Amino acid sequence: MKNYILLAAAFLCIGFSSCKKNSSGSGSAHVNVKLTDAPGLYGAVILNIKSVVIVTATGEHTLNVGGGPIDILHFRLGKDTLLASQDIPAGTIQQVRLVLNTTGNTVIVNGTSYDLTTPSGQTSGVKLNLHDNLTAGIDYTLKLDFDAAQSIVLTGNGKYILKPVIRAYSEAVSGALTGIVSPALSSPKVYAITGTDTVGTVADASGKFYFSGLAAGTYSVKFLPVSPFAIKVVNNVTVANGSVRDMGTVTIVQ
Questions:
Q1: Which domains does the chain show, CATH number per domain?
Q2: What is the SS3 string spanning 172-216?
Q3: Predicted TM-score of the model (pTM)
Q4: Tell me, what's the pLDDT at 164?
């Protein structure tokens, strides 16, 4: 029986397109920060973004942005670009700040490049209104919708000032699945299967299992315990974006 279980587990990993080890809900949410733009009447608007700071009850979490200056006008009409990606502690977002480098911010008007100065954006960061909850084990996209037309101000002496007008919002792009196996000593490997995709984890010493970052959909959850316990499959387990599906106690019999 034990050899059969090990072979079955190996077959699952080979036979499906995605078999990976999953974390057990460490209290973090994964956040991808993306930038998009509303159209503006300029040849280019180039921003040199240093970081995105997400403030929660646990403190400030800095997501560094690499890759150098970007022309945000390339990301209009539904297009976006990934600025940063990182795990941060779950909780309520209290504030988001977009921090710019002090140089490398320009606007091109009629073929001429002008430096953009920002009153406060290069130091403490441009403060964005966003109050949303981040649930542990869920993947989120934090979208920064930059309004170029309203963000660039031409002064009386012919200089351009950047006063960013940015709409920030978050959206959950995954869900999570959890439960408790009884008895815990059955020590099963657990697989969440949908279509041709399989994600695997193991129950811990207390019998708890946890899948984070699952795509929304309907899963078959397969339990491969140690001998003499029997394989168990629970079908039609639904996972929704932004929520944790709790299967409760799953009993494994001999």
A1: 28-172 (2.60.40), 174-251 (2.60.40.1120)
A2: ECCEEEEEEEECHHHCCEEEEEECCEEEEEECCCCCEEEEEEECC
A3: 0.78
A4: 85
